[in-house]
Amino acid sequence: MSIRIVVVDDQALVRGGFAMVLGHQSDIEVVAEAGDGLEAIEMAQTHRPDVILMDIRMPAMDGLEATSHIIANADWPVRVLILSTFDPDEYVYKALRAGASGFVLKDIPPEQLVSAVRTVAEGGALLAPSITLRLIERFADQLALDTKVSSRLERLTHREREVLAEIAHGHNNNEISEKLFIGTATVKTHVSSILTKLGLRDRAQAVVFAYESGLAEPGDYDIGH
Amino acid sequence: MSIRIVVVDDQALVRGGFAMVLGHQSDIEVVAEAGDGLEAIEMAQTHRPDVILMDIRMPAMDGLEATSHIIANADWPVRVLILSTFDPDEYVYKALRAGASGFVLKDIPPEQLVSAVRTVAEGGALLAPSITLRLIERFADQLALDTKVSSRLERLTHREREVLAEIAHGHNNNEISEKLFIGTATVKTHVSSILTKLGLRDRAQAVVFAYESGLAEPGDYDIGH
DNA sequence: TCAGGCCTCCCTCTAGAGGTGGAGGCGCCA
DNA sequence: TGGCGCCTCCACCTCTAGAGGGAGGCCTGA
Hints:
2 copies of one chain form a homodimer.
Chain A: E1 3-8, H1 12-23, E2 28-34, H2 37-47, E3 51-55, H3 63-73, E4 79-84, H4 89-98, E5 102-105, H5 110-121, E6 126-127, H6 129-150, H7 158-167, H8 173-180, H9 184-198, H10 203-213
Parallel strand pairs in A: 1-2, 1-3, 3-4, 4-5, 5-6
The structure holds a DNA duplex.
């Protein structure tokens, strides 16, 4: 069973080149080509390919928008590999958010393109080396920071860390007392102790500290409505 | 000028295999081999290679520790490519934090190992497809969240967003007034407006919102001392 | 056995936070 | 020109948060 592909690029020559390279592989079959985003969506619906090779810059509808649309509306497992001439941050992040499984530059050698397609078809993900580097750096920075500041968390007792976690959720003393089944006076004692130990002024700074130290992480819950 | 490499693995057979594959390339030269972390540090110091191919599981000192040590103390540009049999999350994150430029599984075909080494030597980064996928997912989740909540940020005026950013730094009304060159009364007006518009109760919740919405991000500065 | 740390709770006091309502100046746009 | 939104500032009021100091029960390790 071969990998079924749709190639999308507004330049027919480029499109044809990719299609030819891929079509020559015994396990890959190019089932359609498209010249812009709208056509891409149409071809995707019609042929239900395993992988879509998508250019970013295109007339009518660009590759990112088309990717979002296809991923959001597809009722079969489809994976998108983004092709770009440059690698500006903005595009990459938008592409990943759109649900792309990969982001490679057009200057890669044919055999790497082929293996990229196979990787993506198998459920993996693939980024251009320079992009991977940035992603790693972003990630590593965050981790390094976590460990640096979190050492100060060790000064706190177990109970204090619990209270700090509640503060980091935006709860007031009363809510914390109810949640931890203790009196508000006790909560105040803990809070004071936390602020003193960490050299903070008020609970707002405590929230900042919790996020900076990694005790709290974006994505846990919702505030307000 | 060829790429100078040190191969580190406790299994002589595996080490020899990698060394042979790489050594056959005209642009790659294996200058040393090491059987454990301590030896790796020694060889790195002695031969000052461009790239170190590092196994994780090793006696005496494991690859992660050795990587940390080498990266931290090297006075020349050295890059480490981690080799692992499995891909547990824990290892990957530790490796990235240690400063590794890549993380590949041992089952990759020889030609991909060679190109991985070249990529890393050129300053790029490379991860195994399955790991890249996880990294992307982690990242995409975060972004999706950002945009979801940040739509509420649009209700705020420009000035209010500035004030919110200051709140997210843990500053009190007085500090904000000094920083933005306005009166404290004005700051209070803005703060009230922010809390009302976002459905929040106090500035601690505002800090939470700032981090959850992506207006503030871990890593900006330090609180306390 | 006793000291010390942790958790619990109480009191008082003050400064800051936040709500409410009002006001003037500015720029934009119908 | 008149309205409208934004930014600026003021006064008054309420209330929570946080500081400071004290105290009892519990467990652990010297």
